[in-house]
Design goal:
- The chain has one domain.
- Helix content is 70%, strand content 0%.
- Helix 12 runs antiparallel to helix 13 and helix 13 runs antiparallel to helix 14.
């Protein structure tokens, strides 16, 4: 199968919910290298965070009697609002092609994909594949669904890094240099500067950034062609996002609201266990923990992200026992509860009065998780399915959204046709 064939299949309108094909890589992946890196990360987190805090976990049970239940309810409410922001975020990324989808339908789709991402191995593309299937079965074409999924993922990641970057820059003059904070701040700033330089260097097209990426990839024994292709795809996606100012503003707003509500929920859960945190310290711990969650070790970063939260909060002065309970309550609302809620939401898409018309193509969530786990496709492989350039080599740009008056007229016209039929 040639590259042109893959591109044509990826761009063809898809209404069956099936994904376009992808050409497998000629070079086998270095799974032993990835496993070694994951194991080293896990051991480092365990050594620096779990072992020093283990004796303090015993005193955490004494704090259970002093918990404020109303703050737990408020924290859960804030977390649900944060999760809800994904629906208008996806609607903004879809633009006019997704105008027929209600925010309620998109919320159920997003919660279904979140539930699946929390039960499959880390780094799997299962949730993206499910989101693609649900949107195409809901009447969105394949290219539009792929573009929206990539835009939401990239936009959300960029906003998180900007929030963390601002918190680091604002907090350094206030807090001065503390061993934990100084190290984290310097590493965070350096990593973000390097990543930004590489991405914008690729957008510039001078070729120097690509040579740097290939050199880094070879040093870490990673396929340099694949590394360069992935970073180039990120740069092109970012250029696509920046080219539509209206969509960029909406994506930035809803992504920012999602992260800030999520961080506020963490603050409230900590307050429920009598832990007071300065907001800049909380945002730094929150941002770094969510960046750790992007490392595909376990689903949702389960285990090492939790201990990372506790270790950083303790480093900023929180009591270990209260921090452990606050993080546990937060992770229940942020990780475990959406699994249950998303499973119910997915069920409403399969059966009942609000189900998808072509629901016969939807299997049980558990069967889908097993199927995607066996296939073992990564998130990177999934994103490489959807081209960013057309057959002439030009960057694909979404047409601007129509004015609200025209959009309302189209909706009214659809309703008249449907009533007449």
């Amino acid at each position: 199968m040639t590259t042109e064939t893959v591109t044509e299949q990826a761009q063809a309108p898809t209404t069956t919910g099936e994904l376009p094909a992808i050409e497998p890589s000629d070079r086998p992946p270095r799974r032993h290298f990835r496993l070694t890196v994951k194991l080293l990360i896990f051991l480092a987190v365990a050594y620096y965070f779990i072992v020093p805090l283990a004796p303090d976990f015993r005193s955490a049970f004494e704090d259970l009697g002093r918990v404020n239940p109303w703050l737990l309810v408020i924290g859960l409410g804030l977390e649900m609002l944060a999760l809800y922001c994904y629906a208008p975020l996806m609607q903004a990324a879809l633009g006019d092609p997704g105008a027929h989808l209600s925010v309620g339908r998109l919320f159920r789709i997003q919660m279904s994909t979140r539930s699946l991402s929390s039960i499959v191995p880390g780094g799997s593309a299962a949730s993206s594949a499910l989101g693609y299937r649900l949107m195409t079965l809901s009447g969105v074409t394949g290219p539009d669904a792929g573009f929206a999924l990539a835009t939401v993922g990239l936009g959300s990641a960029v906003v998180l890094n900007l929030i963390l970057w601002i918190a680091l820059l604002v907090s350094i003059p206030i807090r001065g240099v503390n061993p934990l904070y100084g190290t984290v701040a310097m590493i965070g700033v350096i990593v973000m500067l390097v990543c930004a330089a590489l991405v914008f260097g690729l957008m510039d097209g001078s070729g120097r950034a690509e040579r740097v990426v290939r050199w880094i990839a070879r040093r870490f024994h990673v396929n340099d062609d694949r590394a360069a292709a992935v970073l180039e795809r990120i740069a092109e996606r970012l250029e696509q996002l920046l080219s539509d100012k209206q969509m960029l503003a909406k994506v930035a707003f809803w992504a920012s609201l999602n992260w800030l509500l999520d961080a506020a929920a963490l603050w409230v859960f900590l307050r429920a266990f009598n832990i007071s945190m300065e907001f800049d310290a909380l945002v730094i711990a929150f941002g770094i923990a969510n960046l750790l969650a992007a490392i595909p070790v376990t689903p949702g970063g389960l285990g090492y992200v939790d201990t990372g939260y506790i270790g950083m909060l303790v480093g900023f002065g929180a009591a270990a026992g209260g921090a452990a309970l606050g993080v546990a309550a937060y992770r229940f609302a942020q990780f475990f509860f959406p699994i249950l809620l998303g499973g119910l939401m997915y069920l409403t898409l399969r059966v009942g009065p609000w189900s998808i018309d072509r629901r016969d193509r939807l299997v049980r969530l558990r069967d889908l998780a097993e199927e995607e786990s066996r296939r073992g496709e990564t998130k990177i492989d999934f994103q490489l399915r959807f081209p960013t350039r057309d057959d002439t080599g030009e960057l694909i740009r979404r047409p601007p959204s129509p004015p609200p008056e025209l959009h309302a007229f189209r909706i009214f016209g659809r309703r008249k046709k449907r009533d007449a039929a």
